[in-house]
Write a structure and sequence with these properties.
The structure is a single chain. This protein is an all-alpha fold and 167 residues long. The chain has one domain. Helix content is 68%, strand content 0%. It contains eleven helices and no strands. Helix 4 crosses helix 5 and helix 9 crosses helix 11. It is globular and about 40 Å long.
Length: 167
């Protein structure tokens, strides 16, 4: 009965998030020297807790090889759906992916761990208000439930950024 009522009013819920729409930005990149974006796209769609390590390694390597030319905000917003989705299923890859979220926000002036978490959570709310498909359900869950548990890892990334800036 509730589903019928929701369908009448077309109430959108988390369950209506379409991962193909979430990762569509990958389909729009057509730069020279990019990794196989179709393979990354398919790997993201098929990723789950049981995905084998070699497949995950290839996915993470592919994400890190993407050369996305933009300003800091554009860079962050491009990688946010990819990183949050992967870290939901495979949190141990944070050391290879978290820099895509921390680095751009550090460059924008955020140097505090809690501030970084707040910026990321705020970005999720902002983008989901504009497009309910911006993050997968899993990516949203990672931000809500797991991001705050990564304070040490976020501090490590902030320290790395600061050290790079000081050199």
């Amino acid at each position: 009965m509730i589903n019928w009522i929701k369908s009448l009013f077309q109430i959108e819920t988390e369950a209506t998030v379409n991962p193909k729409r979430t990762f569509k930005a990958l389909k729009n990149l057509h730069y020279i020297d990019q990794p196989d974006l179709n393979k990354i796209y398919e790997s993201l769609l098929n990723l789950n807790k049981d995905t084998a390590q070699p497949e995950c390694e290839n996915l993470v390597k592919g994400i890190n090889e993407i050369r996305y030319a933009s300003n800091t905000n554009g860079y962050f917003y491009f990688f946010f759906p990819l990183v949050s989705h992967v870290l939901y299923f495979k949190p141990h890859y944070e050391s290879k992916l978290l820099h895509h979220l921390v680095g751009p926000n550090f460059a924008n002036g955020e140097k505090n761990v809690q501030g970084m978490i707040d910026v990321i959570k705020g970005a999720m709310k902002y983008k989901l208000d504009l497009d309910s498909n911006y993050l997968t359900i899993e990516g949203q869950s990672w931000v809500k439930e797991d991001l705050h548990k990564m304070k040490e890892q976020i501090m490590r990334e902030i320290d790395f950024c600061q050290n790079e800036l000081n050199e």
